[in-house]
From TrEMBL:
GO terms for molecular function: methyltransferase activity. It holds the Pfam family MTTB. GO terms for biological process: methanogenesis; methylation. Belongs to the trimethylamine methyltransferase family. The lineage of its organism: Bacteria, Pseudomonadati, Planctomycetota, Phycisphaerae, Sedimentisphaerales. This is Trimethylamine methyltransferase family protein. The keyword Chaperone does not apply. Keywords: Methyltransferase, Transferase. It comes from Anaerobaca lacustris.
Length: 478
């Protein structure tokens, strides 16, 4: 069986982007808004201007950092048997760590998220087979923005046994969040041995490493947790007006974040987050669904593999605001490109439009899309058993394979069996059922799951300790 291997860059192209990244870091440099990081860079051989905060990174430092960086890792849930593996050939799907608005299931309109919305999203993520990391999905308006990430982390670890993720606000909240994970894991050493969460560093394009982001990286890396680095450079806005130029700058930004991470904590595993976008020339808005999105995602997978890293690409996304034809075209085409290129993980599930909101129906259908494209990625097996020449001879001209033992033995593995959101009825059957759209079927399935699914509850004493950590954090942060 052939493995997926979609490529758009030649080996020479990959080498040229790598060398351009090194050149950018050496000659242009990167602005580092973190005093300790600048000090460590200077001690490691970088040329640092404290006035401009720009650090010029020599090739030797970058290559040494690449050599010592961890190239794969596993995240563990509250149930250690529920994991997400990166760098091992698995495909990992994650519901959104959090959007600032919510798409109401009944009206289709945007509104503020509630705690109940987040709890529903966590329960739905726990139930869906292809969601391996459960995100908070929303930012509840009832909860103060200061410390909301600590509260959401507590809801996540109590509401699902899978690995979890929410957006971490700063270094102070990172400490409380790590304390929650240490408590669930059974102590600091246990958390180091079985990591439960990634730090996410988003360099600010062009060529800046933010202070709060590096505070988070330092806290997580020194606690033995992996780090995902994903700038969102935008072609013709925060990156050059060419795709190759965007890729070169994006690569430089990732490498800069990697170097600092290794200075904070050597051997920290890294996720190469190649998630560039374009700016739509007509609206000036970042596009999630452009054809260039898929092209650059495939190229970023190639760059990550060149360095040996697991890779996150922003595919399976759309600019559409409703589950329509545009959404289907954009989400599926880019998802297939990223998956066939060999990415480890993909654009966060449950996002409506260009980060315009979170939706339970979109999350459910993203899970269905994952099942669909997974079947394509699995390919097909050609051997004596599957060629079935003996079966064809036995059945003969004019025969029927439906009840044959060979068919019964193989059809469940060979054929993808669609779920209740899909329509394979006859026209008459579809009309008789009420001409229901996929969106309506998804809404009904979400209602059914929320009415019936309950995650394995956390032990009461542990839940009480998690609540105590949240309360202490809220007092200290206010």
């Amino acid at each position: 069986m052939a493995k997926p291997g979609l490529r758009f860059l030649s080996d020479d192209d990959v080498q040229a982007i790598h060398e351009a990244g090194l050149l950018i870091l050496r000659d242009t440099g990167v602005k580092v808004h973190h005093a300790e990081a600048r000090r460590l860079l200077a001690e490691a051989g970088a040329t640092v201007d404290e006035h401009s905060r720009i650090a010029h990174l020599p090739e030797q430092l970058v290559m040494a950092s690449l050599a010592q960086t961890g190239k794969g890792y596993t995240l563990y849930g509250r149930d250690p048997g529920r994991t997400a593996r990166f760098g091992h050939g698995d495909r990992v799907w994650m519901s959104s760590p959090g959007q600032y608005t919510w798409i109401d299931s009944q009206t289709g309109r945007r509104r503020g998220a509630t705690v109940q919305d987040v709890q529903d999203a966590i329960r739905l993520g726990d139930a869906l087979d292809h969601i391996h990391i459960v995100g908070a999905m929303g930012q509840p308006e009832e909860v103060s923005e200061i410390g909301s990430d600590v509260f959401l982390t507590s809801e996540l670890v109590k509401g699902t046994t899978k690995p979890t993720r929410c957006w971490v606000r700063n270094g102070r909240t990172a400490g409380a969040i790590l304390e929650i994970y240490r408590t669930v894991a059974g102590g600091a050493q246990s958390l180091q041995q079985r990591p439960m969460a990634e730090a996410f560093l988003e360099p600010i394009s062009p060529l800046q490493l933010p202070e709060h982001g590096l505070d988070i990286v330092k806290a997580f890396a020194q606690a033995g947790q992996p780090v995902s680095i994903g700038p969102m450079a935008m072609t013709s806005a925060t990156a050059p007006g060419t795709l190759a130029g965007t890729l070169a700058q994006e690569n430089a930004e990732i490498l800069a974040g990697l170097v600092v991470t290794q200075l904070f904590a050597p051997d920290t595993p890294i996720m190469y987050g190649g998630i560039p976008h374009i700016m739509d020339p007509e609206t000036g808005i970042c596009s999630f669904g452009s054809p260039e999105q898929g092209l650059m995602a495939v190229a970023m997978v190639q760059m990550a593999r060149f360095y040996g890293f697991p890779v996150y690409v922003n595919v399976g996304l759309t600019d559409a605001k409703t589950l329509d034809t545009q959404a289907g075209i954009e989400k599926t085409s880019s998802m297939l490109m990223g998956l066939l290129a060999g990415a480890d993980t993909f654009g966060h599930c449950g996002i409506c439009g260009t980060d315009h909101g979170a939706s339970l129906e979109w999350l459910y259908l993203d899970n269905e899309l994952a099942a669909y494209v997974e079947r394509i990625a699995r390919g097909l097996t050609v051997d004596a058993e599957t060629l079935a020449a003996e079966v064809v001879h036995r059945i003969g001209p004019g025969g029927n394979y439906l009840a044959d033992e060979h068919t019964v033995r193989h059809f469940r593995d060979e054929l993808w069996l669609s779920g209740p959101a899909w329509n394979r009825q006859s026209w008459d059957g579809w009309e008789a059922a009420g001409c229901i759209s996929m969106n309506e079927r998804a809404r009904e399935q979400v209602r059914t799951i929320l009415a019936t699914h309950r995650a394995e509850p956390m032990e009461e004493k542990l839940a009480a300790e998690i609540d105590r950590i949240v309360q202490c954090a809220q007092r200290e942060l206010d």
